[in-house]
Design a protein that fits this description.
It contains two helices and 99 strands. By secondary structure, the protein is mainly beta. Strand 65 and strand 66 form a beta hairpin. It is flat and about 170 Å long. The two termini are 108 Å apart.
Length: 1431
């Protein structure tokens, strides 16, 4: 039998939580259950495992937070196991409800099936317990929802701790979960719901959300509409009482039916009119004593809804502050709240008051107050009516029925107006009552009602006091009988000080506010008009002015005077302001007295006449005073006219009041100018020194000059002491000359001149009027020297005019004309231009000098005889003479001092004049002398002449008498120089004939007589084979005939005792070398030696004879034994186109046979054979010999040696030659090299006959006999013999034989052939003739047999050996072109013999299959079928 064993239990199955039935049907979770309800886990299928009973859902909530409201409590439950039928579910903790013990109906919610499993009613205990019976086993996990209704507490209550339990199953007692979700916005039963409001039996505190109050009229005693607005946070039940308290002070009596109005929404409030009217009663109960208003709701109000109503109350008669208003209800736990004062607009009829910010507050009543009270009198004049304008303003309205009275007090008792009724204008105040003794005026405000802040006006008239000095300051006040508050107390009337815009009944002190005096003429002894302007601040005359006034003008002094009490006529626009338009002269006061006959408050201007005194004086001090009225001051200073008097056009003479050329303050009354010349002009016509001049005088006096008066013109200075004119009578000119004479008995039109004191005196012969201008002229000779204008003065004496006699006009400086017209202003004579230029700077030359001078002043013209002196003309060899020609004049010349003097004719100022003369230049080098010029007679300062440079021969400009050339005995240095010194060569090719050309210019003559020798030094380090006959270098070029070679002054060396030669032809060159003193003669000529130098000679062109010394060569052939020649002499029929060449130091000497002219270019050439090789080897790989600096100098006329400039003008255009690399510099010689070395072929076929094509050129003269080897022709097969001649063909076709004879074979000397060395695979040719020096390419071809085996291009090389150059450089010295040192003397090929040739890599051969590169020499293709077709 099977043994007992432990069963395997199910630990893995997890029950579902959302399915009914299935594998485990006993898990009874509803299909609607949420997963989170279940707590199934692995092991739940374990046998007999039982869940613990638990509440998985236990939620509770409510429908309202409002106190005393019916509240629906909502419950949702679910259990982890079924509740068995008969079980009791108990909910506890629902405390505070107003619902008594009872059975509550339980309602199913959301069709949860509650009624199928639970009873539909429950047992309620007010203690907070609800018991529910289970009628059928419930489904585990299923949510059951139900509700029931409780009445909320009347007062606030916080969230409760509510629990749930069941029996008999072992469910634990657990707290229920309160609904913490926020109710939906707008949900009934909640005001602005928030999370937690749905907690069961949670009740909020009832309160007013808002309570506002405002009014429309703050005026005392006026009807006032008060507005109220409120809202609560809970619904107010119907018939709830609302109490508004604190509305105290109103005049409105108690009422049980005080109407309530419900205004529509406006800017003050948006509360709904309809809601307010439907919710609140239409009337309220009003209690005046405590200011309480009670109203009730006629329907339930909605929480948060604003309601508004208003009532009308009558404001208190007196002002009061705003009231503290509250609102409350009769609901329990509902708190009273104070009202907020809403800043709403007042009624449009109310004028707002600045500073009272709470006039909208409930029952705030404005305190009446004065806002304006002013009084303005119309006149401040004594004894005049003054109309007083009163303006006042209150901040509250005044009604005509109020019985308001206005009292004006403080007006004083000094008015002239008697007590009694007072008419008042303005239309507001009634008839006034004036009390003079108290100064009080009372008015009734009974004409019309007035508005708040209305400015009211009234006017009445009082008579001003008569004496301004009796005025006492007064305080005017105004009062009105209205109720207002003074401090903390109420007052029955209010008063205010009246602002006196001008002091009431105060008068101004009478003053002269304008007192001004002026005159018509300030000239001495002139008839004068005095003008007075005055104005007072008050009218001193008129209907209302009760005083008689006299005005006195005092201080009139300095005139010819009036008799005491004389009547002085007045005239002018204001003269009628005084009685009879007259005044009376008072000697006691020194003034005029006039009675006022019309008001003087407007400007009054009048004038009177008098005669000025002759003495100068300032204007006196004037004063104005008055009698008959008390003035503020006893007298008033009179202001004076400071202006410039306007000229009296056309009026002349003192007796007519002439006045011209006024100055500031001339219009001050009785200000009198001193007698003077107002116009005192002086000028001249000529400003040149020493010239005849005319002086012009113009004057105008401010006083008449009667006949006999004397006028003097002085200070006509001559600073150089010269004379202006002879002392005595001189003639006057000009328009007024006849009004004057030199004395009262002399002829008119004359004056008296004192040449010592330089003074002109004239007497007046006919009267001169003040203000008239007079002029005359007189003649003087100007000073000889320049000077500034003289400070000419004028004065007059002996004048009798008006009430004065023996009047004088003091001396004053006259006004001088501007610039050169100023009197005796003489321009300083100045030599403004002085230049000198000469025509030649060369020694001993005839030199024309040209002087240009200019004077700032004219010379001559009959005033004086000028002359010109030149000093400093030193160094000339022209002899002194008294008859030296200068242009058209004759002057005197002094060679020792270098001075030239000659006369001048008339010279115009500022004009250049030229004077030319000729002097002989110094024979020696001379620096320019400093030359000065001077003009005579006038005060000229000598001036150094400006040298004008003279330019010639590209020289720097030379100054007059500057001599350039050789120095004389005792002088150091020379100014002679080469201004051009160019040299260049024709070719740098080695072995080639090279033409060296030099061109020079000098700046001085090089005369033959100076034994001039031009030497060109090529530096003895250079190797140069110059073409010459002995030491005579052959010259070519455009100026070669100018020079000759060996001259007669050379060093000679005697080596033996005689010779015998003949000279058969006409072109001979005889050379001999004697030393010591000797004389020789013969058929060919005669010579004499002195100290080894030829002293004399006679040479003929032919003949024979015996001459000593013995060693002589004739035409290059030694006539006797050979000699070492150290010097040479050439002579014969042709002496030109030679230069002496000294091979020991490479110096060329050029001796001119004619004078060398300055500024002339001389160009000659010599011929040189360039070396092909040098004993020391080449200077570099490319250059055989580098050029060296070449200098040029001169003897006879010494010119220091200087380096020549190198020109490329003579360089030939040759391959590989460029001036940029210095190839134009003399004796720069290239190293021998190939310029071109190309080789190609005709066929690459193996074993075929192949024509090799060669082109080469060199930069060297390849001499006849030189060997040209083309080697390394690898693979080529020649003829059968290992060495044989091979004919050369033309390059073009490779078949036509050459015929130019440039080459020959080495083996048989065959023309146009080479020798083929088969073993060496080389072709050797010899130059048959010298190959040219033009870089010419040489072309030829020759045939070979290609090898059968294929091969690349052969490394073909080419070299040239045995190039023979000039023997002068060395008889055994040869050149070669090769890259191998082993081939220096042989052509035989070695691996690197010669220079690699350039292969033809471009030509495409005309054979099938050929491409570029197949023309490369000895390139052989592999053997192949080119065509392999079958058919």
């Amino acid at each position: 039998a099977p043994q007992r064993s432990l069963m395997r239990r199910d630990f893995s199955t997890v029950y579902g939580t959302g399915t009914v039935g299935g594998l485990y049907p006993f898990v009874k979770y509803s299909s609607s259950a949420v997963v989170s309800y279940g707590d199934s886990a692995s092991g739940d299928a374990y046998p007999l495992k039982v869940y613990s009973p638990a509440w998985v859902v236990k939620k509770i909530g409510q429908s309202t937070t409002y106190p005393s409201k019916s509240n629906t409590i909502m419950v949702t439950v679910a259990t982890s196991v079924p509740l068995v039928s008969g079980s009791t579910v108990t909910i506890s903790g629902l405390t505070g409800s107003a619902t008594p013990d009872s059975t509550l109906t339980l309602a199913d919610m959301s069709s949860s099936g509650f009624g199928s499993y639970f009873s539909t009613s429950g047992t309620w205990s007010q203690s907070g317990t609800l018991a529910i019976t289970v009628t059928q086993d419930t489904v585990a996990g299923t949510q059951y929802m139900f509700s029931f209704v409780l009445v909320n507490p009347g007062c606030p209550q916080g969230p409760l701790n509510i629990s749930i339990a069941t029996s008999p199953l072992c469910f634990p007692v657990v707290p229920m979960c309160q609904d913490m979700a926020a109710p939906a916005a707008g949900a009934p039963g909640f005001y602005y719901p928030v999370p937690g409001d749905a907690q069961a039996l949670y009740v909020k505190t009832p309160s007013f959300l808002s309570f506002s109050v405002w009014q429309k009229n703050p005026y005392p005693g006026f009807a006032n509409v008060l507005h109220f607005e409120f809202a609560t946070n809970v619904n107010l039940p119907r018939n709830t009482l609302l109490t508004v308290a604190g509305l105290t002070g109103s005049q409105t009596a108690d009422s049980v039916m005080l109407p309530l109005a419900f205004p529509a929404a406006d800017t003050d409030s948006t509360a709904s009119q309809a809601v307010s009217r439907a919710t609140l009663s239409s009337a309220a109960t009003w209690f005046q004593s405590n200011g309480t208003l009670v109203l009730q709701t006629i329907a339930e109000s909605a929480a948060g809804a604003f309601m508004r109503f208003n009532i009308t109350l009558v404001n208190p008669l007196c002002c009061q502050s705003a009231r503290a208003v509250t609102i409350s209800t009769n609901m329990s736990c509902f708190q009273s709240v104070p009202a907020l004062w809403r800043n709403a607009a007042l009624d449009p009829s109310v004028v707002s008051q600045s500073g009272d910010v709470f006039e909208y507050a409930p029952l705030f009543v404005r305190c009446p107050a004065w806002r304006l009270a002013t009084v303005v009198p119309s006149s401040r004049y004594p004894c005049t009516d003054s109309n007083l304008a009163l303006a006042f303003q209150l901040n509250v309205p005044v009604r005509v029925t109020d019985g308001t009275v206005l009292t004006l007090s403080g007006l004083g008792s000094d008015s002239l107006t008697p007590s009694g009724g007072m008419a008042v204008g303005g239309g507001v105040l009634g008839q006034g009552n004036w009390n003079l003794s108290t100064g009080v005026l009372v008015f009734a405000l009974n004409q019309r009602s007035t508005a708040a802040y209305e400015i009211l006006s009234a006017n009445f008239t009082l008579i001003n006091p008569s004496d301004y000095s009796q005025y006492l300051a007064r305080n005017v006040s105004v009062a009105v009988n209205v109720c207002s508050r003074v401090g903390s107390s109420l007052a029955s009337s209010i008063s205010s000080n009246v602002i006196q815009v001008q002091a009431v009944l105060q008068t101004d002190a009478p003053v002269f506010n304008l007192a001004w005096i002026g005159q018509r003429s300030a000239w001495p002894s002139a008839r004068n008009t005095i003008t007075v302007s005055l104005q007072t601040n008050q009218p001193f005359f008129g209907n209302n002015f009760r005083c008689v006034v006299n005005v006195t003008l005092a201080g009139l002094s300095g005139h010819c005077g009036f008799s005491d009490n004389a009547v002085v006529p007045l005239f002018g626009a204001g003269a009628s302001s005084f009685a009879q338009s007259t005044a009376v002269w008072s000697a006691a006061s020194g003034g005029l007295v006039a009675r006022v006959a019309s008001p003087t408050s407007s400007l009054t201007i009048f004038s009177f006449n008098l005669t000025n005194g002759a003495a100068a004086q300032p204007s006196p001090l004037y004063s104005l005073s008055a009698s008959g009225v008390v003035l503020q001051s006893s007298a008033y200073a009179v202001s004076k006219d400071p202006s410039i008097l306007i000229d009296t056009s056309g009026v002349l003479g003192s007796s007519f009041g002439a006045m011209y050329q006024g100055v500031p303050r001339d219009a001050e009354a009785l200000r009198i100018q001193p007698p003077q010349f107002l116009t005192r002009g002086v000028s001249q016509d000529v400003y040149w020194p020493g010239a005849s001049n005319t002086i012009r005088v113009t004057f105008m006096a401010n006083i008449d000059l009667q006949p006999g008066a004397i006028v003097m013109i002085s200070s006509l200075d001559y600073q150089d002491g010269s004379s202006g004119a002879a002392s005595g009578v001189i003639s006057l000119g000009g328009s007024d000359a006849l009004r004057f004479s030199s004395s009262m008995t002399a002829n008119n039109g004359t004056g008296s001149w004192d040449d010592v004191s330089k003074v002109l005196t004239v007497y007046v012969r006919s009267g001169l009027l003040a203000g008239a201008t007079y002029s005359f002229t007189f003649g003087l000779m100007n000073p000889r020297c320049g000077q500034p204008a003289s400070p000419v003065c004028i004065r007059a004496r002996g004048i009798a005019v008006g009430c004065a006699s023996n009047v004088l006009i003091p001396r004053r400086i006259m006004d001088t004309a501007p610039g050169d017209s100023a009197p005796l202003l003489v321009r300083a004579p100045v030599i403004t231009v002085a230049t000198l230029v000469h025509s030649t700077p060369f020694a001993a030359a005839s030199n024309q000098l040209t002087l240009v001078v200019q004077s700032s002043v004219p010379l001559g013209f009959g005033w004086f005889s000028p002359s010109l002196t030149l000093t400093g003309l030193t160094g000339s060899t022209t002899a002194s003479t008294a008859s030296f020609a200068v242009g058209g004049a004759v002057g005197s010349w002094n060679r020792d001092t270098g001075t030239l003097i000659f006369p001048l004719s008339n010279l115009t100022q500022n004009t250049n004049y030229s004077f030319s003369f000729t002097l002989q230049n110094s024979a020696c080098n001379q620096l320019p002398p400093t030359v000065s010029v001077q003009l005579s007679t006038l005060c000229f300062q000598p001036r150094v002449v400006n040298p004008v440079p003279f330019y010639t021969c590209n020289l720097q400009g030379t100054s007059p008498l500057e001599v350039v050339g050789a120095p004389c005995v005792g002088q150091v240095g020379s100014t002679a120089l080469f201004t051009q010194k160019l040299i260049g060569q024709s070719t740098p090719y080695p072995g080639c004939t090279n033409t060296i050309t030099l061109s020079f210019t000098v700046n001085v003559p090089l005369p033959v007589s100076a034994s001039v020798v031009v030497t060109v030094d090529f530096v003895n380090s250079l190797a140069m084979d110059v073409s010459r006959l002995n030491d005579n270098a052959l010259l070519t070029g455009p100026n070669s005939s100018v020079f000759y070679g060996s001259t007669w002054v050379v060093g000679l060396q005697v080596l033996d005792a005689g010779f015998n030669c003949s000279c058969p032809g006409s072109m001979n060159s005889l050379v001999f070398t004697p030393v010591g003193n000797d004389t020789g003669s013969g058929a060919a000529g005669v010579y004499t030696l002195v100290n080894g130098m030829v002293a004399s000679w006679t040479i003929t062109s032919g003949g024979s004879g015996y001459m000593v010394p013995p060693i002589v060569t004739l035409n290059g052939t030694v006539c006797s034994r050979a000699a070492s020649l150290t010097a040479q002499m050439s002579y014969g029929a042709s002496l030109t186109s030679r230069g002496q060449w000294n091979a020991s130091n490479n110096m060329l000497s050029l001796r001119p046979r004619i004078d060398l002219q300055p500024c002339t270019s001389y160009t000659v050439s010599i011929t040189v054979a360039n070396p092909v090789a040098l004993p020391g080897g080449p200077a570099s790989a490319l250059v055989l010999q580098e050029a060296q600096a070449v200098t040029i100098a001169s003897t006879g006329v010494p010119i220091a040696a200087s380096e020549m400039s190198y020109s490329s003008a003579w360089l030939s255009q040759l391959p590989g030659v460029s001036s940029a690399q210095g190839d134009h510099r003399p004796m720069r010689v290239h190293a021998p090299r190939f310029l071109v070395k190309t080789i190609g072929q005709s066929s690459p076929f193996p074993g075929a006959t192949n024509v090799l094509r060669v082109t080469f050129s060199t930069n060297v003269l390849v001499s006849s006999g030189a060997r040209i080897a083309i080697a390394n022709l690898a693979g080529a097969m020649g003829v059968v013999l290992p060495r044989t001649d091979l004919a050369l063909n033309q390059l073009a076709d490779g078949a036509t034989p050459l015929a130019d004879n440039n080459f020959r074979s080495e083996l048989g000397s065959t023309q146009n052939a080479g020798t083929w060395y088969d073993c060496e695979k080389a072709l050797v040719m010899m130059a048959n003739t010298g190959l040219n020096c033009a870089g010419t390419p040489y072309n030829f071809s020759f045939p070979v047999q290609n090898p059968v085996a294929p091969q690349p291009c052969a490394p073909v090389r080419i070299n040239i050996t045995g190039i023979q150059g000039s023997a002068w450089y060395g008889p055994n010295l040869q050149a070669q072109i090769t890259a191998a040192a082993s081939l220096r003397s042989t052509w035989l090929p070695v691996p690197d013999a010669g220079v690699l040739m350039d292969h033809d890599l471009a030509t495409v051969l005309a054979v099938q299959g050929a491409v570029a590169g197949d023309a490369c020499a000895l390139r052989v293709w592999p053997a192949a079928f080119l065509v392999k077709s079958v058919s």
